[in-house]
């Protein structure tokens, strides 16, 4: 039976859509709330996600919010089709490494890129000022983190090891947004990150959503 994802086909919702595309799953509905009207900040949406955010998954009465949780759920739900995206059950070492790299995405990547994107992209859209001091601080720290990622990706092909996985999918939406706001140099200035990006964006799953994800025509 079809399920519903409340969200849009870019930003954080995109991680769930990429999982489904990798799995070849098309029997779902994507529903975008009326953001301008603040629909996501009022009932019934806040009954599903108290924080008033997207994405939200509705699967036959089961409701789940938070993009990484939804992506993990979908990867497990459809584990038997397409690429596994997560380690084999019972492989404790593989899972430890998977969680290591997944945790790094939140603490060493998203923590910084989310502020940069909010300041430079979403604040102007919302009529809010961009704070240059905040942008400078987070961009400086972000560059330091990316230099480390560039070293890591000189030793492995993907963010979670030598195979494409859910960890890569966690990174891809916000990297796409960097290109959308004209900050693709964060990626292209670092050869190993650039090579990783070229590998993951060559996948058919990404090509389905590339235009909205990066603003490319």
3D structure, described in words:
The protein contains ten helices and four strands. A four-stranded mixed β-sheet has the order 2-1-3-4, with helices on one face. The two termini are 34 Å apart. The protein folds into two domains: 3-78, Glutaredoxin (3-Layer(aba) Sandwich), CATH 3.40.30.10; 92-211, Glutathione S-transferase Yfyf (Class Pi), Chain A, domain 2. Helix 1 runs parallel beside helix 3 and helix 1 crosses helix 6. It has helices at 13-23, 45-48, 67-77, 92-125, 132-152, 166-180, 185-188, 191-201, 204-207, 210-214, and strands at 3-6, 28-31, 56-59, 62-65. It is 55% helix and 7% strand. The chain is α+β, with helices and mostly antiparallel strands.
Features:
217 residues, alpha+beta, Glutaredoxin, Glutathione S-transferase Yfyf (Class Pi), Chain A, domain 2, 2 domains, 4-stranded mixed β-sheet, 10 helices
Strand composition percent: 5-15%
**What Rg is obtained from the alpha carbons, in whole angstroms?**
17 Å
Shape: globular
- Distance between the first and last residues' Cα: 34 Å
> Which fold name fills CATH's third level, the topology of the largest domain?
Glutathione S-transferase Yfyf (Class Pi), Chain A, domain 2
Average pLDDT score: 95
Low-confidence stretches: none
E-strand count: 4
What is the number of helices? 10
Helix share bin: 55-70%
In spatial order, strands of the major sheet run: 2-1-3-4
> What is the class of the largest domain in the CATH system?
Mainly Alpha
Sheet having the most strands: 4 strands, mixed
Order of secondary-structure elements = EHEHEEHHHHHHHH
Number of domains: 2
Structural class by SSE content: alpha+beta
Q: Oligomer, anyone?
A: single chain
The appropriate CATH architecture of the largest domain is: Up-down Bundle
């Amino acid at each position: 039976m079809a399920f519903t994802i409340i969200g849009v086909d870019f930003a954080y919702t995109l991680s769930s859509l990429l999982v489904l595309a990798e799995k070849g799953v098309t029997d779902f509905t994507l529903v975008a709330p009326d953001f301008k009207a603040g629909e996501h900040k009022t009932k019934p949406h806040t009954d599903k996600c108290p924080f008033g955010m997207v994405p939200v998954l509705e699967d036959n009465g089961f409701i789940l919010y938070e993009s990484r949780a939804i992506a993990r759920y979908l990867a497990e739900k459809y584990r038997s089709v397409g690429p596994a995206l997560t380690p084999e059950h019972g492989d404790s070492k593989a899972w430890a490494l998977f969680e290591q790299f997944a945790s790094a995405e939140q603490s060493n990547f998203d923590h910084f890129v989310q502020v940069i994107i909010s300041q430079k992209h979403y604040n102007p859209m919302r009529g809010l000022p961009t704070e240059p001091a905040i942008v400078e601080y987070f961009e400086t720290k972000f560059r330091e983190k990316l230099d480390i990622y560039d070293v890591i990706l000189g030793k492995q092909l993907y963010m979670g090891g030598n195979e494409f996985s859910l960890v890569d999918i966690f990174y891809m939406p916000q990297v796409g947004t960097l290109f959308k706001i004209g900050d693709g140099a964060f990626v292209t200035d670092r050869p190993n990150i650039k090579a990783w990006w070229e590998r993951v964006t060559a996948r058919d799953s990404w090509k389905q959503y590339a235009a909205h994800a990066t603003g490319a025509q």
